[in-house]
């Protein structure tokens, strides 16, 4: 079908057929990008460049330019390069003509070609730029602000393509013209109002840190336009509102109908985009402007009249936070009791959470989640209890209310957008659990039941796997709380290991591994500290649990609070009932003492008294509780400790022991 349409552009076809074909190519280029460009470049570009020369039918010619603009706007340099010279040559030839109708379209195509070809356009810069400067200055002189806007747009797009090294000789002239226009009173519908804002942003993107001299001129203008009001029109007689010229557009808000001044709102959008673009490029160089830019953009997270403004505001939040953090680190900001970065964190994070709770468009919700996650990583825990509760409600609502694939009224695009939001919600929750760890524990009771709902068999594999993944994150950060759910969790995890979906199976095994890694410690601790642990029917299990705890400490110490677990382990030594486990545990104790284990000995070696007492009890029991090798090593360690101790300290220590233990110890050391 596409091939037949492209062939219809030929000169021997009727002009109406050619116009229809060109319009269709334009739509394909816009809606089927980039696949259409990749597949049909060798047919489309020759056909369009030839149609550009159809001077007999100006409408065909204009439509060819329009189609070429859409096609080249979504091209890669490799697609354009074989045709670049021919296209640029034809465009320059057209710019030399005095056909005003074509000149605007020519500038649009040239800007798209330059930007898409990137640095490959550099070799044409010295040829193209003189034409563009003449057109710009002529349009300014003749007060043709439509053509002026097109020329400035083209110049700044060319600049972004070729880079700052190429444009140094031309920036001064264009900047002076921009400043001159900025000082003049441009009418509300003047196309240069928006173009002026875009030009500053692109110049900043191109120059980077060298843009600093122009910040005092450009940023106040961008801020003023971003804050612009009077874009809502509420007429006395709504029935007489004329929307035909596009300057006014109706908008339904709930049960209310209002009218928007489109040009004013377009200026607001352009200003917000410009501020975001400069913040992203200048980073900490934005310094003194960061706070005011943030104060301007944060409220726009909930700007219901325009989704593009919400999208830009959400994207800008992590950029501004990063700029503020870097400015703080480099000393570019004045510090008070609360640093500008900390204040920005306390403003941005709650605002993002609030925006997330209100956002209805999946695409923007995904951006908010992405920005929220990035901001959390930089800010640390800043959300209070109410904000945390609001965040979790929204996240769990996303995770538990997805559209089912089988719903016939849910189109593919919606499912794709929902999936993106779903994935972002999972990532954001994982980061949130890790960052907010110190204040998150009270909310686990609300989170775990929601996770359990995701484990049910009627859920799709993606949801079951996600529930397992979230549980893994919780178990890593809150092992004790997760282990309290073991009677539910382990049954499900073992059941999940039978799942036919390999991704579910993989995460289930990982979750069991975390239980083995973390949950086992708390299970052993529960056995060891059980009120009946030392009753005759339980002592064998008690000793086995203490020995097992020592083994886990030996092989997984780096993943634990070793000092805490060693203290528990030492408190329950010596083992006196399960003799096999006793010999293992006592040998391990001796080995740790041999290397002067800091965490076992404790601060200022305060656990030495307990260790020596344990040794005395083991020696008093004879060969039942330790091997000959272990006993021999213990005696050597005790002799060394006695020699290194102050005599009065050693005597005091010995006198504190029970008589039978003291006599046994003295007997062993004297022999």
UniProtKB/TrEMBL annotation:
Top-rank taxon: Eukaryota
UniProt cross-references to InterPro entries, sorted A to Z: ARM-like, ARM-type_fold, IMB1_TNPO1-like_TPR, Importin_beta
Localization annotation: Cytoplasm
Transmembrane segments: none
Keyword annotations: Cytoplasm, Protein transport, Repeat, Transport
Keyword Protein transport: yes
Gene Ontology cellular component list: cytoplasm
Protein name: Importin subunit beta-1/Transportin-1-like TPR repeats domain-containing protein
């Amino acid at each position: 079908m596409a091939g037949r349409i492209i062939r219809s552009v030929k000169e021997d076809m009727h002009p109406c057929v050619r116009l229809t074909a060109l319009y269709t190519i334009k739509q394909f280029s816009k809606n089927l990008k980039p696949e259409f460009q990749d597949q049909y470049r060798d047919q489309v570009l020759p056909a369009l460049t030839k149609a550009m020369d159809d001077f007999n039918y100006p409408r065909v010619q204009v439509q060819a330019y329009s189609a070429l603009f859409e096609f080249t706007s979504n091209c890669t340099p490799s697609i354009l390069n074989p045709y670049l010279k021919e296209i640029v040559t034809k465009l320059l030839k057209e710019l030399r003509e005095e056909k005003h109708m074509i000149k605007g379209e020519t500038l649009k195509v040239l800007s798209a070609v330059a930007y898409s070809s990137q640095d490959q356009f550099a070799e044409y810069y010295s040829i193209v730029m003189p034409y563009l400067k003449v057109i710009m200055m002529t349009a300014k002189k003749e007060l043709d602000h439509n053509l002026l806007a097109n020329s400035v747009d083209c110049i700044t797009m060319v600049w972004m393509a070729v880079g700052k090294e190429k444009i140094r000789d031309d920036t001064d002239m264009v900047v002076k013209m921009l400043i001159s226009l900025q000082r003049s009173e441009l009418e509300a519908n003047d196309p240069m109002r928006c173009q002026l804002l875009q030009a500053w942003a692109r110049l900043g993107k191109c120059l980077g840190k060298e843009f600093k001299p122009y910040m005092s001129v450009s940023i106040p203008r961008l801020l003023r336009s971003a804050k612009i009001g009077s874009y809502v029109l509420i007429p006395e007689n709504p029935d007489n509102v004329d929307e035909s010229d596009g300057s006014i557009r109706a908008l339904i808000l709930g049960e209310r109908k209002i009218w928007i001044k489109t040009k004013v709102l377009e200026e607001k959008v352009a200003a917000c985009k410009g501020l975001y673009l400069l913040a992203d490029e200048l980073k900490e160089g934005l310094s003194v402007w960061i706070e005011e830019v943030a104060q301007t953009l944060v409220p726009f997270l909930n700007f219901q009249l325009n989704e593009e403004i919400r999208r830009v505001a959400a994207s800008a939040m992590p950029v501004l936070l990063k700029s503020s953090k870097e400015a703080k680190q480099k000393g570019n900001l004045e510090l008070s009791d609360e640093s500008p970065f900390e204040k920005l964190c306390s403003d941005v994070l709650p605002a993002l959470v609030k925006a997330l709770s209100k956002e209805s468009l999946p695409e923007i919700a995904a951006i908010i989640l992405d920005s929220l996650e990035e901001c959390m990583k930089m800010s640390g825990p800043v959300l209070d209890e109410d904000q945390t509760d609001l965040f979790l409600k929204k996240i769990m609502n996303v995770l538990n209310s997805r559209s089912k694939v089988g719903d016939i009224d849910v189109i593919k695009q919606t499912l794709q957008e929902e999936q993106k939001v779903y994935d972002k919600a999972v990532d954001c929750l994982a980061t949130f659990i890790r960052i907010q760890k110190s204040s998150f524990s009270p909310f686990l009771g609300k989170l775990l039941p929601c996770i359990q709902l995701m484990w049910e068999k009627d859920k799709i594999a993606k949801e079951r796997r996600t529930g397992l993944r979230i549980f893994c994150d919780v178990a890593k950060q809150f092992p004790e709380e997760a282990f309290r759910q073991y009677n539910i969790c382990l049954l499900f995890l073992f059941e999940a290991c039978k799942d036919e979906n390999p991704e579910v199976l993989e995460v289930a095994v990982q979750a069991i591994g975390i239980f083995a890694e973390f949950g086992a410690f708390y299970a052993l601790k529960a056995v060891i500290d059980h009120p009946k642990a030392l009753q005759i029917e339980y002592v064998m299990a008690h000793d086995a649990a203490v020995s097992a705890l020592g083994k886990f400490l030996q092989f997984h110490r780096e993943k634990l609070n070793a000092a805490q677990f060693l203290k528990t382990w030492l408190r329950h030594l010596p083992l006196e009932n399960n003799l096999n486990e006793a010999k293992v545990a006592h040998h391990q104790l001796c080995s740790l003492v041999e290397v002067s284990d800091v965490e076992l000995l404790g601060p200022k070696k305060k656990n030495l008294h307990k260790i020596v007492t344990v040794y005395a009890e083991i020696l008093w029991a004879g060969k039942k509780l330790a091997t000959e090798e272990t006993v021999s090593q213990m005696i050597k360690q005790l002799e060394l400790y006695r020699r290194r101790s102050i005599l009065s300290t050693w005597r005091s220590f010995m006198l504190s022991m029970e008589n039978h233990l003291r006599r046994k110890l003295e007997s062993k050391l004297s022999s």
